[in-house]
Each structure stands twice: as structure tokens, then as C-alpha cells.
Amino acid sequence: MxxxxxxxxxxxxxxxxxxxxxxxxxxxxxxxxxxxxxxxTDKVVLEVQASAEGVLESILKQAGDxxxxxxxxxxxxxxxxxxxxxxxxxxxxxxQTPTKETEASDEVSPAVRRLLSENNLxxxxxxxxxxxxxxxxxxxxxxxxxxxxxxxxxxxEVLKPKPSSGARMEERAPMSRLRKTIAKRLLDVxxxxxxxxxxxxxxxxxxxxxxxxxxxxxxxxxxVKLGFMSFFTKAVVAALKKFPSVNASIDGExxxxxxxFDIGIAVGSERGLVVPVVRNADQKSMAEIEKxxxxxxxxxxxxxxxxxxxxxxxxxxxxGGTFGSMLSTPIINPPQSxxxxxxxxxxxxxxxxxxxxxxPVMYLALTYDHRIIDGRDSVLFLRTIKEALEDPxxxxxxx
Length: 399
Known about the structure:
The chain is an alpha+beta fold. The protein has helices spanning 89-93, 100-106, 110-118, 137-146, 154-159, 177-192, 205-222, 229-242, 286-300, 375-390, 393-397; strands at 2-6, 17-22, 29-30, 35-40, 45-49, 54-59, 66-67, 72-78, 195-203, 248-251, 254-257, 263-265, 267-269, 272-274, 277-278, 315-319, 338-342, 345-352, 355-369. It folds into three domains: 2-78, CATH 2.40.50.100; 101-159, E3-binding domain (Dihydrolipoamide Transferase, Irregular); 197-397, 2-Layer Sandwich (Chloramphenicol Acetyltransferase), CATH 3.30.559.10.
């Protein structure tokens, strides 16, 4: 009996995906639940598993092909076994026990295995930047382009670009679906919204003191480190409660005021920027928020975030300070009407009660849609965040 391998059911927001890599070849035996192929959409990477045990009979969509929701991409012959070619004496003598090289290749994704195979590379030659040192497709591409690797083989030296007189090298690569989507949305929002950005600065002294005093107890009690994002998320929620227009969105000729606080947290990954959502942030503790954000960041790198986790936010926070950004003008994530940009913390000379002191200062930027948010509300909204962070007791007392 033959059964069909189908692409997953895509949500309405996703029109199509692309085959990244097949994990098996025609004629290979497959087990029920085995990941056969990866499909990249403009938001996440989806895995297609075998629904029954058998042999891969055919592949109808190759790596690089576009696929639509529930489209047939291959077939499995159920109830048959893979035919193994007769082994010669020579081949039997060449059978070896698994090496570190083969073990390493088993730990990487099909997309990485394909890149390694196509370029005659080994996994241990390249330094992985994923969670736990996991090797990512971008690591292989960077190695090929720049020779960034673990210096364990002469192959690295061969691939490193060497200076030559008059050489002007170029490399052309297709944009990923995620990158295309990001580019389109950024252009669309700038053409359809009246964007304006207001700035302020916040003295992070009180927050840093609080973290230094309780960070060890916090981590011991909750199993997660106390970061800055939970403070900012709580401060944002407090400000959104005071200024509902910042938590609203435009739908046609209507303004939709949201009675809940779903905060998007922009996460930079090798695939591009994604914005998973902390839902009902007003009802969650700082520990719960920190755990959720840490989980988002870990899964964003491997494209394992679910589509539902990146939909429905009412406001977004982006932290360019993790990369050393001093100041920026972030672009809103539609249909939201505002976004808060955090930046790096730098010791600056400030006046405190008539005295010049050195304090850790962060610049904040609020980009908002002027069609729905007035300048007064945007300035007061940002000032509310500033006051809450400079005196965190306000968050406890709801002031």
C-alpha cells in the first residue's frame, strides 16, 4: 500500500513554504514519526514526519521547490522493506566503528548535513554558534565565505580568502523567505503609517542595584537569571494601562482598543528577526516572563518557534543594546501602533540632586503611529516607563 507525504496545513497568514532538505533518499527505510523533510516558511521551519513505517517510494518536491498547504510532496510504500545491496568482501573489510566525525554529523540538522556534503566538509571543522554549540547552516556559509572555523584541518586554510592584487570578490545568495517577508513588511509599514519617534533616557542605577542584590536568590528560587527584559516588560504594561491608545490598533476606519497585554519581544536569530509574544504579561511574574523570553530566544535560532507564538501581539519591545546600539528608530510591527527600542547602558555624567555623578544611562526610543497616538500621549507614555525603571517600587505599588 502507498500513502502520501503531505506538507503541513499552513495558517491563513502563510501562503507557501519551501523545501529546505530531505532527510532520507528514495529507497530508504523510514519509521513512523521519523522526520523526513524540513519546510521553511516566512516565519518558522516545519518538520514533516512519517505517518507509517515503510520505504520512501518517491520524492515529488525537491529541495528548493515551493510547496502549498497540504500539497503532496512524496510517497511511502507501507509494508515493504528497503533492499540492501550484496556486500562484497572488500566492502565488508572496510566497515568501521562509528567515529567522532560520524557522530558529529548525526547531531546536525538535514540542512547542515546537505551543506557539509556539497562542500566536502566535516562538522568538527566548523565552530557552531547555536545552542550548546550546535552547528547551524549559517555557520557553514560563514566558513565558506570567510574561513571562520576551528583550526583543525588544512581545509580551513584552503577555504580562507587570500589577498590578491586587484581581486574584487562578490557573492550572490538568494534571500530567505523570512528575509523577504521582513523586507516587505518594513516597506509596507513605512508607506501606510505616519511614523514618528520620541526619545528619553533612563537612569538604570536602581534596577542594577536591585538585580545585584537579589540575582542569586532569584536564580536559586526560580531557576532563571534576573535580566532587564522583565523589568521593561512590567514597566511597559504599567504604561499601557495608563495610555490605552498605545495598546490599540487600526482596523480599516476603526480603532481597536485591546483589553489585554500581549507583549512581543523582538529576537534576532541567524534566520532573521522574529517577534514571539508574551501573552497576558500583566498576569505573569517576572520569573515567568524571564523563562518565557529565554525559551523564545533558544528556539528562535533553530526555527522551532510555533507560528501561533508570533501572532497577536499588542505592543513590541526590541533591545538593540545587546549588540551595542546607542540609539535607533525602531519600526513598528503591524498592526501594532508602537514599539519601544532599548539600547546599551553606558556610564555617563549626570546631575543628581545638584551633584554631578556617574550613572548607568540607557537611551529609550518610542516609535508610534501618529494616526492613532498623539504626541502628548507618546511622550507621557515614555516618561511613565522611565519613572517606573528609575523607581521600581512604582511597579509594586501600581503608581
